[in-house]
Amino acid sequence: MKNFIESSYVKDMSKTTNNLYRHGWDERNGGNVSLRLTKEEVEAFAGTDKVLRQIPIKFDASALAGKYYLVTGTGRYFKNIIEYPERDMGLIRISKAGNQVDLMWGFNDGGEPTSEFPSHLMSHIERLKHDPDQRVIMHCHPTNLVAMTFTVPLSSKRFSRTLWKMHPESIVVFPEGIGVIPYMCPGTNAIGEKTADKMNDFRVVVWPHHGVFAAGDSLDETYGLIETVEKSALIYTTIRAQGGEILQSITDKDFKDLIQRFDLTANEDFLTPDAVTANVD
């Protein structure tokens, strides 16, 4: 039986965090990722059957009691995870009471889960209500998307339509649009609650002037979701750098054609522009 460090889950998490760092989306110790694993997946590896220590968390996660998560550590640099996975991430199990986690593997230098872990758990709870296959919450700082939060009104509809119009892949990949919350202090339960509320309708939630929270069924899917959002934000930024005047773009009729072609369930509320923004979004 292989040890957990040899598992595909550790290897995939290491590769993903390294890619996030190389893209410039997780500078220093910015960003965090959590991946839900099943009991059967965990028990297939040696060295995951004993509780190494218990770590308190500032959130009642009893709704997830018994579930396992591979999660990045607080204060850890994503560029280092690929070399030191057993130090910079940990496999935890949510306790029955929900106010602490059992460490089953990792954090071998005394580390703990990311400070945003309560926010991750809140979003996991909400997304599991909509998608029983949901596994991943990913937080990072995509440069162009963050830049847009300084120049585009902080409206979920405005952001969604602007990004949809930048590239046809956008409405195909995130037909529900993206959610935007007001600026809030990170690392708090309050921002976690606001984000989880948006996760009822969206898989991507923008934290203005900071970054993004995204949910998905796998590391690849969630990474690709953010990658598509950021590509559209890059196109928008490039247009503005070229002078800012948009002479032509993907139209509302084009949206309908894409929806029909790819059999999408798109956000009906976002398909028609508001009168005050019809000429600028």
Strand order across the biggest sheet? 2-5-4-3-1-6-9-8-7
Main pleated sheet: 9 strands, mixed
> How do the SSEs run, as a string of H and E?
HEHEEHHEEHEHHHEHEEHHH
Question: SS-based structural class?
Answer: alpha+beta
Number of helices: 12
Report on the structure:
- With 281 residues, the protein is an alpha+beta fold.
- 40% of the residues lie in helices and 16% in strands.
- It contains twelve helices and nine strands.
- The protein has helices at residues 8-22, 39-43, 78-81, 85-88, 117-130, 143-148, 156-164, 168-173, 189-198, 219-241, 252-262, 268-271; strands spanning 32-37, 53-56, 68-72, 89-94, 100-106, 136-140, 179-180, 204-207, 211-216.
- It has a nine-stranded mixed sheet with strand order 2-5-4-3-1-6-9-8-7, sandwiched between helices.
- Helix 5 packs parallel to helix 9 (189-198).
- It is elongated and about 60 Å long.
- It starts with 7 loop residues before the first helix and ends in a 10-residue tail after the last helix.
- The model is unreliable at 276-281 (pLDDT under 50).
